[in-house]
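Summary for the steering committee. One of the milestones for this cycle was to obtain a three-dimensional model of the protein with magnesium ion bound, which we needed before selecting residues for the alanine scan. The sequence and ligand used are listed below.
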Amino acid sequence: MIITSDTQRTNLIEGGKRLAAVLEALRTQVAPGVTTDTLDDFAERMIRDGGDEPCFLGYTPEGANRPYPATLCVSINDEVVHGIPNESVRVLREGDIVGLDLGLRHNGIIVDAAITVPVGKVSEEILKLLRATEASLAAGIAAAKPGNHVGDIGAAIQEVIERAGFKVIKELGGHGVGDVVHEEPFISNFGRRGEGELLEEGMVLALEPISAAGKASVILMPDGYTYRTKDGSKSAHFEHTILLDRDGALTVTKL
Ligand code: MG
């Protein structure tokens, strides 16, 4: 969406803060022995207690053959995105990494964010994957300003992930957000500077670098949602919703 009023701006920023608070609370719930459906219930309850609505629950993305059945996406280890927490319930184990992707609607405006969290102690290599992917999101946000292009964001993200020795998963990427979960433009996590759609003031975008420690090929599971890496290597995902102000991006999904 394009923000055109102060009311929309206020609602976007408040929704972003609320989503950030839920994700931070979820982060503290992550521990060995915790089940994926517990995290999903926790997220749904906290969103509804705040008077907001989960916006992934019941949403059918383009290409899917059924609505998404949960509030939260929980993707463990080689699961890349969109793992379903409440159908094949799983237990988190020491050494896992878990991606938590969540969206909510606050006063009609949708915000979307994700973090990847280590479960207990994980290897140095995997910590490096998490740090590089989070840093690539910061680089993408820094490149997101009016007058730049979608390719500037993709190039910035790609550079950080590849410099750290990891791969960008190319099938998946960021998107416009606000009125619905997925809007134009699609924002690849790779690209060339100066190419792609022009970025304009007021745009609301969800930037979401998705990386792999091994090869970048992914496969879609029979549940129609869960993507995994083909080689079984671990994958990381960080996401923020941002608003393009005149001078640059405002990250709305942070505390
Ligand atoms: Mg998203």
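Key point for the committee: The chain is about 30% helix and 25% strand.
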